[in-house]
Write a structure and sequence with these properties.
By secondary structure, this protein is α/β, with parallel strands linked by helices. The protein has helices at 10-24, 44-49, 73-80, 83-103, 114-122, 150-163, 215-227, 259-268, 278-287, 298-309, 321-327, 335-343, 345-354; strands at residues 2-5, 32-36, 54-58, 108-111, 129-133, 169-173, 186-189, 208-211, 233-237, 245-249, 252-256, 271-274, 291-293, 313-315.
C-alpha cells in the first residue's frame, strides 16, 4: 500500500515508478492514498497510471503567501495548526488507520506524507513502513549540503523525523551513490524515474521549458519575457481555470500539467527552469538538459545546492532566465554516471523492500 504526499508532482511520479517496478517483480500494489491541500488538483495522469484505487485525504501543505512564490515557514505552521485544520487532519488520520485495517497490506510505503508518521505515533500500526524521499538524505552523516539558515535546517530535520515516525526502514533518494547508514536503517538509493522518460528522443527544439507550480513565478516569467521576446518559452502550471494551452504573447505559451506532454517537451528543450523539485531535476539530468533551479522552500533549496554542485544546473532566487541562457553553453554534468546510478535502482529497491528485518 502506498501513502503519498500530493504537494507538487514529484512524490506522485515516484509512486508511479515504484508501482511499475514492483509489479514487474511479481508484487502487488493494492491501494493508494494521497494527502493533498483541498486547493490543489490531483493530476489526472496519476490516477490513470498508478494502476489501482486512489483515495485522497486532507493533509498539511506549504503556504506561499499572497505573491505565491517561496514557501513561508511561519505562515505554513500557523495555517496548518488552526483548530479547523487540526480537526480535518484528525479525520484524515482516522481514515488512514481504517484504510490500512481494511486493505491489510504486507508493507506500507510512505512517500514523505507527514500524517502517516503522526498516525504511527497516535496509533500502533501492525505493519512495516518504508519511508522514501530525497529529503532524508540530510540525515546522512556524510551529506554536505545544508539550508542557509539554522532555522531552515532544523525545520527540515524535524519534518523528516515526523514523516518517518514508526518507520522500519528509510530510503533516501540521491543524485549519486553514498554509503548506507546502517545504524539508523537509512539506505541511499537512486531516483525513482518513470519508464516513459527512458523512451524519449533527446533533441534541441530551440525553446526553454519551465515548470512554475507557484503562481507568483508565472508573473515573474511574463515580465522577463517582455524584455526578451526573441526567446521562445513553454511553461507548465496547474492553474485551475486556465485552458489546456494559453499563448499569452508571441513566443510565450502556458500549458496545464500534462504528464506525457511535459516529458516530450523536456526532451526537446534547450534548457529547463524549475523550482528545484528533485524528480524534475533528475529527469533533466537523465536527458542532459541544463537547469535553472529556483527553490520555493527549504528542501528545494538543498536540492538546488546539490544539483549545482555536480554541474547539473545553476541556482537562483528568482526566474531570471538570462542566467539559464548564459549557463546552457557551460553545462557539464556527467550524464553517463548518473544514468549508471539510476540503472541500479531496480535491484536496490526490490532488495530493500523485501528485506525489512
Amino acid at each position: 500500500m502506498f501513502i503519498v504526499q500530493g504537494e507538487g508532482r514529484g512524490h506522485l511520479t515516484q509512486a508511479i515508478a515504484l508501482a511499475g517496478l514492483l509489479r514487474k517483480h511479481g508484487h502487488e500494489v493494492v491501494d493508494v492514498m494521497v494527502g493533498k491541500n483541498p486547493n490543489r488538483v490531483l493530476p489526472p495522469f496519476f490516477e490513470e497510471k498508478i494502476g489501482c484505487d486512489v483515495t485522497t485525504f486532507d493533509s498539511p501543505s506549504f503556504n506561499y503567501g499572497k505573491v505565491g512564490k517561496r514557501g513561508r515557514m511561519a505562515k505554513t505552521l500557523f495555517t496548518n495548526t488552526t483548530p479547523l485544520n487540526l480537526d480535518r487532519f484528525r479525520k484524515s488520520i482516522t481514515r488512514i488507520v481504517r484504510r490500512i485495517g481494511r486493505v491489510e497490506p504486507d508493507v506500507v510505503v510512505n512517500f514523505y506524507e507527514i500524517l502517516l508518521g503522526i498516525t504511527s505515533l497516535v496509533h500502533r500500526l501492525r505493519v512495516p513502513v518504508v519511508s522514501i524521499g530525497h529529503q532524508f538524505l540530510v540525515d546522512h552523516p556524510d551529506y554536505a549540503h545544508r539550508s542557509r539558515s539554522d532555522q531552515g535546517q532544523f525545520a527540515l530535520r524535524l519534518n523528516n523525523m515526523l514523516c518517518s515516525l514508526g518507520t522500519t526502514k528509510t530510503l533516501a533518494l540521491s543524485f549519486y551513490p553514498m554509503k548506507d547508514f546502517y545504524r539508523d536503517r537509512l539506505a541511499v538509493v537512486p531516483p525513482l524515474l518513470r519508464s516513459e522518460l527512458f523512451e524519449q528522443e533527446v533533441h534541441d527544439g530551440g525553446y526553454i521549458l519551465g515548470y512554475v507550480l507557484n503562481p507568483g513565478y508565472a508573473d515573474e516569467v511574463r515580465e522577463w519575457h517582455k524584455k526578451h521576446p526573441d526567446v521562445k518559452l513553454h511553461l507548465f502550471w496547474d492553474k485551475k481555470d486556465a485552458p489546456e494551452t494559453l499563448e499569452v504573447a508571441p513566443g510565450l505559451t502556458f500549458h496545464k500539467i500534462n504528464d506525457s506532454r511535459f516529458l516530450e517537451m523536456m526532451a526537446g528543450c534547450s534548457g529547463y527552469a524549475t523550482t528545484a523539485g528533485f524528480e524534475s531535476v533528475c529527469e533533466a539530468m537523465w536527458l542532459g538538459k541544463p537547469a535553472l533551479l529556483v527553490p520555493a522552500h527549504i528542501e528545494q533549496e538543498i536540492n538546488a545546492q546539490d544539483a549545482a554542485g555536480i554541474g547539473a544546473g545553476i541556482a537562483s532566487q528568482g526566474f531570471d532566465l538570462s542566467l539559464l541562457v548564459d549557463f546552457i553553453p557551460r553545462y557539464a554534468a556527467d550524464t553517463a554516471a548518473f544514468r549508471e546510478w539510476v540503472a541500479r535502482g531496480e535491484e536496490l529497491f526490490v532488495r530493500h523492500l523485501t528485506t525489512l528485518v
